Amino acid sequence: KLNRTTLLFILVIFSINLFITYPLFGRDVSASFSSTAILGLAGFLENLHVISKSQFFSMLSIFSISFAPISYYLFVRKTAMRHELIALVATLIFILPNPLISGGSVLTGAMLNGDGAHVFVFSFLPLFLLYVKAYISTGVKAWGFIAAIITAMVAIISPFATFNLLIIFAVITISEGFFRDLREKLSRLLFLLVSSFLLSFFWYYPN
Q1: How far apart are CA 125 and CA 47, in angstroms?
Q2: Are the beta carbons of 158 and 35 closer than 8 angstroms?
Q3: Over 60: is that where the pLDDT of 103 sits?
Q4: Side-chain-side CA neighbours of residue 173 (13 Å)
Q5: Fewer Cβ neighbours under 10 Å: the N or C end of the chain?
């Protein structure tokens, strides 16, 4: 549940991130996206004369870079038991320029280095993990189906992100299993993995 402090901090994060990443919005970032699925969607929309590829990738990059810090903030806020200040500090550390990265911030650096698909996936991944955690913990089937569909989408867009996602799934399952019913939590994880595999299998077979 969002309160006034949460909304204020989200506005602060959005404004700071916009100030940092705004110069990137004027660039052609088409070359930063190598995902076959995203390239196919961009080409399909261009063939329908809906939007050009360059405009599509510009809009996708703007959405990804703008939404990622908000998603990250809400994830930290939830896992930190709604401690707003902890979530704010963690998010600022994430978005502020890093001297070790040539592109400035983590997001702009990843985008300029050709990891546009990873940036897009990460923009919603933190919020998605909250649903995964809720499903592993409670077993609510609706959340399980949502988690399976999104996991399949991630697998199609970015295999690299999927590999990291599987590690996080295992950590979530084991941590939740420490409280009780580890075997049941593992069965829910198995359902999630099998379902997402079946949903994304068509993309890789027979390639």
Answers
A1: 30
A2: yes
A3: no
A4: 19
A5: N
Are 189 and 173 spatial neighbours (Cβ–Cβ below 8 Å)?
yes
Distance CA 183, CA 189 (A): 10
Q: What is the reported pLDDT for 169? A: 92
In terms of Cβ atoms closer than 10 Å to its own Cβ (0-12, 13-18, 19+), residue 149 is middle
Alpha helical stretches, state H, 3-140: 4-21, 36-47, 53-79, 84-95, 106-112, 116-138
Tracing tokens 């923009």 back to the chain, one arrives at 123
Q: What pLDDT does residue 11 have?
A: 95
Torsion angle (degrees, nearest 10) of CA 51, 55, 56, 61: -160
The pLDDT, as a whole number, for residue 80 is 81
pTM of the model: 0.85
Among candidates 2, 34, 203, which has minimal Cα distance to 121?
34
Q: Is the pLDDT of residue 56 over 80?
A: yes
Q: What is the mean pLDDT of residues 16-26?
A: 84
Tell me what the mean pLDDT of segment 196-204 comes to: 88
